[in-house]
Amino acid sequence: MTTTNLPSGPSAAPIRSSRRGLVPPGRLALRRYVRNPAAVAGAVVLLVMVLAVVFGPMLSPYSPDVGELITARSAPSAAHWLGTDAIGRDQLARVFAGGRVSLTVGFLAALLAVVVGTLVGTLSGWFGGVADAVISRIIDILLSVPPVLVIIVFAGILGPSVPMLIIVFAALLWPQSARIARGVVLSLREQEFVQAARVLGSRTAYIVVRHLIPGVLPAVVVAATILVADAVLSEAAVSFLGAGVQPPQASWGNMLNDSKSITVLSSMPWLWLPPGIAIFATVLSTMAIGDGVRDAIDTRRNA
Amino acid sequence: MFLIIAVGLFVLVRLAPGDPAETLVPIDAAPGQREELVKAAREQLGLDKPVPVQFVLWFGSLLKGDLGYSFSTHQAVGQLLLDRLGPTVLLMGSALVLGLLIAIPVGIIAAVRRDTFVDAAAGTVSVIALAIPSFFLAMLGIYVFAVKLRVLPSAGMYFSGESDVGDLLYHLILPVSVLALAVAAAFTRYIRSGMLEQLGQDYIRAIVAKGAGPFRATMHAFRNSLIPLVTVLALYIPAFLSGAVVVEQIFSWPGMGQMAVNALIVRDYPVITGFGLYVAVLVLICNLLADVLYTVVDPRVRTAR
Amino acid sequence: MSELLRVDDLKVHFSQRGFSGRKRVIRAVDGVSLSIDTNEALGIIGESGCGKSTTGRAIVHLEDPTEGRISYRGADVTHPDAAARRAFNEKVQFVFQDPMSSLNPRMTVESIIAEPLRAFGAWDRVTGPARVVELLERVGLPAQFASRYPHEFSGGQRQRIGIARALALDPELLVLDEPVSALDVSVQAQVLNLLMDLRRQQGLAYIMISHDLDVIRHVTDRIAVMYLGVVVETGPADEVLDHPLHPYTAALVSATPPSSPDEHRERIRLQGELPSASNPPSGCRFRTRCWRATEVCAEVVPPLEPVGDGRSRACHHPLDLGMPTIRTESAA
Amino acid sequence: MTAAPVLSLEGVTLDLKTGDDYVRILRDVTFDVAAGEIIGIVGESGSGKSMTALSILQLLPPKARLTAARIGFDGADLAGLRPAELRKVRGRRIGMVFQDPMTTLDPVVQVGRQIDEAYRIHHPRAGRAEAREKSLAMLRLVGVPDAQNRAKQYPHQWSGGMRQRAVIAMALVNDPEVILADEPTTALDATIQAQVLDALMRARDELGVAVVLITHDLGVISQVASRVVVMYAGGVVEIAGTRELFADSRHPYSAALIHSRPGAHRRGEPLVAIPGRPPLMSDLPAGCPFAPRCASPYKSERCVTQRPALEPSVDGRLSACHYRDEPQEVIA
Fold it and tell me: Coiled coil located at which positions (chain C) (predicted)?
């Protein structure tokens, strides 16, 4: 055994200090998260985004779908903070409305994927055997299937629709969370405290509630943030390609699609910069939250 | 596996709304003739036969490389795919190579100089690059370099119809840069974390204890970190294709992505189906490739008793 | 003393897929018979891969026996249903090797020690905490530790928490899997003293699994020496270690460093390595490394035969009883 | 010591950054290594014994601050060397053997090549054949059978004991003056440990290399080392000949350590347990670091207030105890 600060062996107790005396691990993790500026900024930005798309349309005097041709293509002004588009719709109202769709698709797809993935991954890891081998193989293959291309094929044949987006994203994203959950369960299953629980006479339900879920949850939260980022980006991409949310309904992706002509691109940046920045900010802040959570629950770090 | 995908695609096409025979016949055909024409088209497409027979016919021709004809351009789909493959491979290949050429040294340096300014900068840039949608980045690129600075073309492969290599390279710069940035961002992170894991291993300390310099130790770590990397790389290719599709669309690059999106807009089923098959085959090949590469690169697997 | 637990011809085989994807059967335990009486301390000793831990884990049903029979106070408990298993665990508890991994880092010491009480409905808000404190004190830890988390303790303290947890249900038998091998020498002594006290004071029986001859000899009465999934020799601890009958036991004793520079051990150096448990040698499993092996060793499996004085050995060519392995010289 | 020291540490002090603060991990570590001797460094986890070895070759974590007075080697001070000069000592004149043979070899490079590499780093003009010849010679010296063919295998095809021999061969291939062996047998079974210790002793006998053997196992020390450095809480508490140390140690910690081993007692006797646990390096007591756990009858106020230095006793033995001249009795 050495005196390194590395986790060198089972008997090497982590550094303790009186400050950390009786703090439960959960609160320690929260403390570490709050001390991470990028993660806090991410949480704030995402919160602002969500509040904006939820309440923004209520506060905005304009309809996102109806425009006045007289004011079409006007630059940002006091009346229209982000200007108007080719048929005179208020761009700010459209950014809010588009955000509702984009975030709904992103969060719903990610939620569905996390729930399914965690369940499948946990069961697969816990029970093992042939089913686990088959599921792992399916996970491996699905992980390399690009959602955007599948949507193009589906939309090309069946026609684009929002529910289809959510279902296809969820169907292709769940393996990510399944793989993570499975990995955690596999390592937990080897942990002696889970084995000990069985010898101590604990029933399976108790083991799952007390040992398994608290162990899997943090990793799943991290996985969920990655999935949200993935789903938001994918939705934007397919809507941009015209295979996702269809006009006149706004989404950040199809708003960019409307603006890819060289005239709009060169002379009306207010039409494409805001939705682009909105996607970017959402994804970046989600990733920052994920990184923050991951670092906060990483018990190997002493901070 | 391939059969399952083929069946799935076939079912999907059958589920599609609308009758392909109807769409084949011009709407403005005379009312009396129209039914005749639709019937003829249906026979021609084999749609009057029972569904299983249709599948067998379809699958048979599929195996012969016959994917049917495009509704809109009436070209053979197989030929169309082949024609479009070249530009896409060129775009993806150059971006992949360029991206890795950036990612490998940057990832290694970030790992070796952990927690320094270089590491932090590389990390920040790659997170930003991962969070920014490629089409938005492409639009920014066009806005800055084509519209404002007027130094790069905004679309296409050539100015004229001529195949001039210099001109081609000139047109490649923007789309390849956009794609390569995404590759570089993703792989810088992979390489950095792989290198960090290896650099923390005992054998690295042992190599330093032998008297090796930092370069030699780094090379040992890099060789070991390559093992998971090759499989990740193989599995990354399909995902990368979707990035290419988006970029092709915005730069009017005459590749498969542009073809697929155009087909999507006009509901050109045979082309979409052909594209779907192509994607499925790509996914399968890449998975197989990942397995094979893994056994080739890792002596622990290669020499297993 | 009466017989508490009995293991007859226990086999635990695992199937494992190698790198090449081919399936192999690992015969981790391949025909082990043991018995332990009330208040007895039995040691199982052997090197890694000999199946000693798997034997202990199979006894508490952490592994599923492939063949054989385990009986507790005469009743068959080889393949218990859930209820029978819980009833068995109430009487037979297990202590793990790694005191870090065997305690859930997210639980307080109180909830860790309370887990078996909760499992058996013996927990209530009033008497529960008092019981936890009593258990902590029994293993020599102060009461205020109850509200803390495992990461705040040293290895030895954690191992004592693990023992307190195992004692919560007042078991009759403890199976201890390398309970001190992760601990420093000075701390190891604390835990070993505790185990000896518990046995004296509470009439506990235990099976101690260890690779450390000195530890086993110190705290157990009787030992079983295992090699490659089988027991090669059993008998009273001192006798077996001072006068081994099986060549493997002798080699093991010889390879163990002496406790002082004045002690010299018979120099027996085994050649080669432990054969694979998926493809053990025919006949006697030790023959490939044994200097006394002859043809018969390759052909006939030597049975574990009693030879009097409570000793048994499984060898065609046992060593003489009179052969000491350790002699002490006075400092020159 | 009659022979001149090949390596001498004088006041080696090491600070490691943990979190925001530097913590002193080694305090004034001082000892000599004589040519061709096997010297043991013994201590529990956290005592600083491994860090001492790593300090000699400066294989330290990135945020370590070495403030050594001097690490004397062949007229030079290793602590003051530039990296390029240090590399000429590492592996060439001072070899290193690590604890875990399963992880110290590069898994994707053939074993033989890794030993060749060690040679070729320091002999850039040597051809492949010459390097391989040296490697094979060393592999044979440490007792690897069929070295020629086995050198072409990858580490995963070698067992733990064999790998450790390969690591030793790698440390020996440049004919160094000193080998630092950091717990070289801790990860190995007893019978394999004996083989590896034999290999180290053969290297000493045939090549005349001095071995610094770091271990927590007093048994190993008593078997192979001629002198022992006892470490506690980052400092040296006693340096003595092995026999003297075991027979009559001059520091209560060494005495307690020796007597806490089960092998030093009769079966079933209570062992000498050192109460409590080693202090945190970030929070060392002001006086003797061992004072809070010390059971010596001589312990006094002075032990709590004043830190004893490593000084000779009346009979010339080095001990860091205020009462080094009193007989050390061990109280159970």
Answer: none
pLDDT for A259 equals 80
CA distance B251 to B174: 9
D190 contacts C185? CB cut-off 8 A: no
Nearest to A283 among B131, B245, B264 (CB): B131
Kindly state the DSSP code that residue A212 receives in the 8-state scheme.
I
Give the H/E segment covering residue A77: none
Q: Count CB-CB contacts under 10 A for residue B165.
A: 7
CB C163 within 8 A of CB C139: yes
Residue A17 has pLDDT above 60, yes or no: no
The parts of chain C modelled with pLDDT lower than 70 are: 1, 17-22, 321-332
- CB of D114 within 8 Å of a chain A CB? The answer is no
Chain-wide mean pLDDT for chain B? Answer: 84
Cα torsion through B223, B225, B231, B236, rounded to 10: -120
Question: Cβ contact (<8 Å) for B203 and D103?
Answer: yes
Per-residue tokens: C237 = 């601890």
Average per-residue pLDDT for chain A: 82
Looking at the predicted structure, is the pLDDT value of residue A211 above 50?
yes
Closest CA to C76 of C161, C128, C7: C7
Name the residue of chain D whose CA is nearest to B113's CA.
D62
For residues B123-145, average pLDDT? 90
- Burial class for C329, CB neighbours closer than 10 Å (0-12, 13-18, 19+): exposed
Number of Cβ pairs closer than 8 Å across A and C? 94
Q: Does A202 touch chain C (CB under 8 A)?
A: yes
Q: What is the pTM of this model?
A: 0.86
Whether residue D106 lies within 8 A of chain B, CB to CB, comes out as yes
pLDDT tens per residue across span A47-106:
999 998 888 777 777 777 777 777 777 777 777 777 777 777 888 888 888 899 999 999
3-class DSSP state for residue C139? coil
Residues of C in contact with A189 (CB under 8 A): none
Residue of B115, B210, B227, B294 to mutate when probing chain D, most D C-beta within 10 A? B210
pLDDT in tens, B249-300: 888 888 888 888 888 888 787 888 888 888 888 998 998 898 888 888 888 8
Taking CB atoms and an 8 Å limit, are B301 and C19 in contact across chains? yes
Q: Cβ–Cβ of D247/C331 closer than 8 Å?
A: yes
Contact C184 D263 (CB under 8 A): no
Q: Write the single-letter amino acid at C221.
A: D
Chain D CA closest to residue A302: D19
Chain A's closest residue to D281, CA to CA, is: A3
Note whether A301 contacts D: Cβ–Cβ < 8 A: no
Q: Which domains does chain B have, with CATH numbers?
A: 2-63 (no CATH), 77-304 (1.10.3720.10)
Report the run of H or E that residue C29 belongs to, with start and end: strand C23-37
> Cα–chain-centroid distance for residue C44?
5
Asked if residues C256 and C217 have their Cβ atoms less than 8 Å apart, the reply is no
Which residue has better confidence, A28 or B220?
B220
Q: How far apart are CA C258 and CA D264, in angstroms?
A: 10
Q: Which pair of tokens denotes residue D60?
A: 């330290």
**Structural domains in chain A plus CATH codes:** 25-60+88-297 (1.10.3720.10)
Residue D21 phi, psi (nearest 5): -110, 155
Please write down the HEC assignment for all residues of D174-188.
CCCCEEEEECCCCCC
- Looking at this predicted complex, what is its ipTM? 0.84
pLDDT digit string, tens, across residues B32-87: 677 777 777 777 666 667 777 777 777 777 777 677 777 777 788 888 888 888 89
Provide Rg for chain B, Cα atoms. Answer: 25
Rounded CA separation D196/D161 (Å): 7
Low-confidence ranges of chain D (pLDDT < 50): 1, 332
